[in-house]
């Protein structure tokens, strides 16, 4: 028997604390969206309403919902060996296979994988390993990690500290010591500040050179690493100018600091390459990953580490005092194996790069004809629009995040999940979207923008 929606909502409000939520929802349970079922690129609420999932859950259900091969692999693994750990000299077949499959698709020289349960944990592991590496090399003073404002690296103490979200830093005494944030390469925002279109290439170079200035200020001997998402996701799908990453890569190599590319969103196909680092042709030393590795079917994350770093740690001959009960959980590993097999079978990287990605890009650009849209940008299966009041003069609405919130609510009512981030609207649809599903997204975005324009008039 199915429980009616209001009863579910009321029971939810009684005992369930929602992440990233204002607990006021407990006083108005009917506002909670109760999602009961999903298939392909669609989710269905408890009353059977069909909604196109333009965010792939939380950027993770890359291969869509309902893949039987993944379900089957999970059940078979559960029956064989549901769980065992990988501490103290043990291992199991699924993690052996998965490690090889991941190493096969990572950039050259990056063939070592440490498993975690999530992206946040992967970043905690990264911080420990980076410092352990420099200490093992006899330079323990190299310990500061440079990150960026408005970056997202997770929600644990280290993850949220590495991230540059001011709202997250405002709670719980963050950031933890040893982390410094530089400005983000957010081109449109720079135009808003200037009140006119500025030179994109020059802005990209300058944003990168902020890293060089920061390293020199702190002293190269005190800096361990720079961490960044190839494309900022949660910050609002911020796609850096093409001049940005080559310059960052150069600076990290010249100043002898490690480069960490947080691939939790960009990894596993979202940019039309296996990793965002491939798209930008950069050579990171470590890559945290999660989300797309299992398409969200079960929780799994990890950290890809370069062979060079691992050889230093191996020669140090000290035990790594770090690990999680669920590092390389066999059942989660089985889900990842089946998911990656499916990615190969569907040729999904090529489809995003040469098929649905360019199709989305073309359609998305046309949103700039809407009076509310200052910029419509996209790359692979990531896209954003800047909501503005006066696009010719780069002027935002005074209450711009309210306007974006109105647009988000119209989207949901029109059957599309689209996220509002400050003054931006973003999507990250499943990689398996067909062209006609992209058409449906675009239709719903136009309709919702029109309704938003009417609402604020
Ligand atoms: C989601 C995300 C994380 C955190 O991953 P969780 O699995 O939620 O802990 C880290 N980095 C980036 C870039 C992310 O988008």
Question: How would you describe this protein?
Answer:
This protein is α+β, with helices and mostly antiparallel strands and 457 residues long. It has two domains: 33-63 and 347-456, Alpha-Beta Complex (Aspartate Aminotransferase, domain 1), CATH 3.90.1150.10; 69-345, Aspartate Aminotransferase, domain 2, CATH 3.40.640. Helix content is 42%, strand content 14%. It is built from 16 helices and 14 strands. Strands 6-5-7-8 form a four-stranded parallel β-sheet, with helices on both faces. A four-stranded antiparallel β-sheet has the order 11-12-14-13, covered by helices on one side. A three-stranded antiparallel β-sheet has the order 1-2-3. β11 (373-379) and β12 (382-387) form a beta hairpin. α14 runs parallel beside α16 (435-456) and α15 (400-413) crosses α16 (435-456). It is globular and about 65 Å long. The termini are far apart. The model has no long low-confidence stretch (mean pLDDT 97).
